[in-house]
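## retry 2 of 3
previous attempt timed out at serialization; input unchanged, resubmitting
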Amino acid sequence: MLRSRFHAMVDENQQPRQGRSTGALIVRDACPACGATRFKQNGQTPNGTQQHHCKACPRQFVQCAEPYRSSEETWALIERVLRERISLRGICRAVGVGLKWLRGFLVHCVEALPDQLHVQPITGNADIMLQRLEVEADEMRRFVQKKANKHWIWLAMDVKTRQVLAFHVGDRSRRSAKRLWTKIPEAYRQQAMFYTDQYVVYAGVLPAAQHNAIHKLARRTTHVERFNNTLRQRVSRLARETFSFSKNLANQIGIIKYFICHYNLTRATA
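## retry succeeded, writing output
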């Protein structure tokens, strides 16, 4: 469904507003944005193709272009490799797609994800299950654009199902902890026991009767800490000492959500 909608949109956008088809090439006789016929040469693209600039609007375009069409197998392959530790430019080189196209495809993938992160509902006797609910919460540090621009990824994980219940990207203040709390499903907020480290902001957000702040040696937050490591190993922009860091916070949040949704689906079928 997602691929069909995006593919239709790409095909529509790739049709030239002004121009003619010559074999496998599209020859534009006018600006594809405004239809003006007066344009001039304006340098070359990175691959050496002559580029033109419209005199009536800011649009730049290539006069002779080969229309790009991707197969369903390519779309499925890209959906898989986006969940692996490969940079966007690495995917472009390996699969043979353009960076601009890949970014647009990633945006549409993220927009189609549900806010509940594919968390499966609680099954069985509700009175019994609610008494057994346990959640681990933790945060990990990362940056966007430069190391001085730090932010923290807050996570809450069900101990039994290993599903990520909620996540939030923000600073390390009580405000971010509250945002994480509001994103956790209502059943967990009412009945679950929360295990965290001894960071003080949790005490002002989690109900005292449902909160157990423990030392790391007690090993009650090992699952969420292990998932932190999984994120760093599977999402290239979260790895330490890498050039694949995010330049935009929205893209960072989107790729994290994309991976978590897939992770929850695999946990549900495990």
